[in-house]
Amino acid sequence: MILKCIIIDDEPLAIDLLKSYVQKTPFLELIDTFDNALPAISTINEKNIDVIFLDINMPQITGLEFSKTIPSSTRIIFTTAYNQYAVEGFRLNALDYLLKPINYIEFLQAVNKAQEWFKLKNNENNETATATRIFIKSGYRMEKIQFEDILYIENQKDYVKFHLENVKEPISSLMSMQSLEEKLPDKQFMRVHRSFIVNLDKIKTIERNCIVFGKEYIPVSESYKSKFLEFLNKHFF
């Protein structure tokens, strides 16, 4: 399994070091390097990047802020000279946290962890591809929700709301969008915004960068737009 990766760091020497590590690791493919996080957004979405080596202290937008915009299918390994960000890094579900100066053994341990994560993810995807429903905990009850009944899913702080077709009230469950996204079949569901996942099979109307479900308008954010446009180009004429 080859993992496509990019390096984002405002220090040229740090980029050169990580680049040398990537080049001598057989299962890594370096797609590009950036000294600023913002120009990397289109590459992440268009090239389906697997792993980002991401510095934390950078101009314009910090690595911690930037990581919140990254799709859950892309894993982050933070690289920084400051250990005080470790707790925040793991709270953001980073795959690993490497403290500079980084040696190759530490680097290899982190990318081995990435490789194992993607192997497990692929196995889960194979199982998910045949699934047609999900069980969630709502209050004190377990609810079975058929994928075909879901219009869209909305994030509200620590909860997600399942908006179902022909059901007036959404079903709420205490879980994260990221953990939920990993359980949904990616051919049927797509995250189009930090707060929304939509059922692609239910899309009938799109208006001004919004997906329309009845009276509800679901925005497609800039971070997810290129992937959504790719879907539209394949299925809408």
How would you explain this protein's 3D organization?
With 237 residues, the protein is an alpha/beta fold. The protein has 2 domains: 3-128, Response regulator (Rossmann fold), CATH 3.40.50; 133-235, LytTr DNA-binding domain (OB fold (Dihydrolipoamide Acetyltransferase, E2P), Beta Barrel). It has 7 helices and 15 strands. The protein has helices spanning 12-23, 41-46, 63-67, 86-91, 104-128, 177-181, 222-235, and strands at residues 3-8, 28-34, 51-55, 75-80, 96-99, 133-138, 141-146, 150-156, 159-164, 171-174, 189-193, 196-199, 205-207, 210-213, 216-219. The strands form 4 sheets. A 5-stranded parallel sheet has the order 2-1-3-4-5. It has a 5-stranded antiparallel sheet with strand order 10-9-8-12-11. Strands 13-14-15 form a 3-stranded antiparallel sheet, with no helix packed on it. The relative contact order is 0.11.
Secondary structure elements and pairings:
Layout (H helix, E strand, L loop, with lengths): L2 E6 L3 H12 L4 E7 L6 H6 L4 E5 L7 H5 L7 E6 L5 H6 L4 E4 L4 H25 L4 E6 L2 E6 L3 E7 L2 E6 L6 E4 L2 H5 L7 E5 L2 E4 L5 E3 L2 E4 L2 E4 L2 H14 L2
Parallel strand pairs: 1-2, 1-3, 3-4, 4-5
Antiparallel strand pairs: 6-7, 8-9, 8-12, 9-10, 11-12, 13-14, 14-15
Q: What's the CATH class of the largest domain, please?
A: Alpha Beta
Number of strands: 15
Largest sheet: 5 strands, parallel
User: Beta fraction of the residues?
Assistant: 25-35%
Question: What is the strand arrangement across the widest sheet?
Answer: 2-1-3-4-5
**What's the number of helices?**
7
Overall spatial form? elongated
Global Rg:
19 Å
Report how far apart the termini are: 35 Å
CATH architecture of the largest domain: 3-Layer(aba) Sandwich
Report low-confidence residues grouped into runs of 5 or more.
none
| CATH homologous superfamily caption of the largest domain | Response regulator
Q: Please give the share of residues in helix.
A: 25-40%
Number of domains: 2
- Provide the residue-averaged pLDDT: 87
For this structure, the CATH topology of the largest domain is Rossmann fold
Q: Give the SSE string.
A: EHEHEHEHEHEEEEEHEEEEEH
